[in-house]
Every structure is written in structure tokens, then in C-alpha cells.
Amino acid sequence: MFSSAAIAANINFTFHPVPDYQDYGKDPSACTQFQTPRCCKSNIIEACVLKASGCLGGCVGASAGRLASFLGCFVKGERDRGVCQPDAKDRCLASAGISANATNACVDDKEQYEPVMAALVKQSRRVQTYPHTVVNGKLLPQDTVKNDEADLRKALCDAGVKAAC
Questions:
Q1: What value does the mean pLDDT take over residues 141-156?
Q2: Is residue 106 classed exposed, middle or buried when 0-12, 13-18 and 19+ CB atoms within 10 A define those classes?
Q3: How many angstroms separate the Cα of 56 from the Cα of each of 28, 32, 41, 76, 112?
Q4: Measured distance CA(153)–CA(1) in Å, rounded
Q5: What does pLDDT average to over the chain?
């Protein structure tokens, strides 16, 4: 979807990299009993990528495309839910064109990533299903196994994005 500039310009991509379970009274970057250390590290990396890419709170166009490219690379190879691959970070940053210096500075500094993760946890309280896809203010059906590009294209077309038709 993001490879088409005309479509990407009409998509505000907002990503919430928070664990499925979160104890909202604790440090949002702390591992919980429901996460492995690799998954905790992956959550921190994803939060820092949001910051470095300028996509914290959502983004459109080329920035959204770079974030989607990073995420596609970063989660590739995860065979089962919870099998996180933080070692793919540098390769995926390079292939997506996102600043490794800015991302790594954030990953290495809790004072940088903790407020980002706290904001993401707060925002994600509204999200009850994954994927959580809203087009033109309308939540797309979440009860389908097929949440794929064709479904999203149709929803965008129905919302008036002619390039998606």
C-alpha cells in the first residue's frame, strides 16, 4: 500500500508497539511475566523507531512507508507470536532508510524511550483488537481472518481514495 505515493499520502499510519498485557501502574518499559527479554527489547526498539522516523502519533506518505518497511522486515521470521527478533534491528533500519544513530541513541537511553513507551501505553488503552484499522473514522471489521491488502484497498476506495480503486 505504501509503495503507491498517492495511496500513502492518504493513510495516517499509527503504530502502538506495546505488550498484549500491560500493568498500567508500572514502568511501561519493564518486562512483565508475559514477555521474554527479547520481546521487551523489541518493544523498546519499535518505540524508538517511531521516535526516530517521526511517526510517533501517526504519519503519512514517505515516513509511513519507511515505518511499514521497517516493521515488515523486523517481524519477518517470527514463526509464532512472542518469538521476537531484536537482532534484526540494524539490518531493518538500513533497508527502511530510518536513522540508526537516532534509533540506537534512544534504545540505549531509558530517559528517551520510557516517555515514548508511556505515551504509547496510554494511547493503546483505546485499542481493543489487533489489527485495529480505522478508515475515515470507521473501525474496519476485526472478525475476519483475511485482514489483507485487498480489504484495506476496498475500504480506502469506499472512503474516496481514488488511487486505491
A1: 69
A2: buried
A3: 16, 23, 18, 22, 13
A4: 8
A5: 79
Report whether 120 contacts 16 (CB < 8 A): yes
DSSP strand E in the chain: where?
Answer: 134-135, 138-139
Pick from 80, 2, 11, 87: which is nearest to 42 by CA?
Answer: 87
Residues β-bridged to residue 13: 59
* Among the listed residues 78, 70, 67, 68, the one whose alpha carbon sits nearest the alpha carbon of residue 39: 78
Which is higher by pLDDT, 126 or 82? 126
Average pLDDT of the residues in 3-17: 78
More confident residue, 159 or 112: 112
CB-based contacts of 54: which residues, under 8 Å, 6+ apart? 63
Half-sphere exposure of 135 (CA within 13 A, CB side): 19
The pTM is what? 0.79
Helix 61-74 with 89-96: angle, nearest 10 deg? 150
Whole-angstrom distance, CA of residue 40 vs CA of residue 113: 12
The grid cell for 84 is 521476537
User: Which triple of cell numbers denotes residue 132?
Assistant: 485495529
Under DSSP, the state recorded for 131 is S
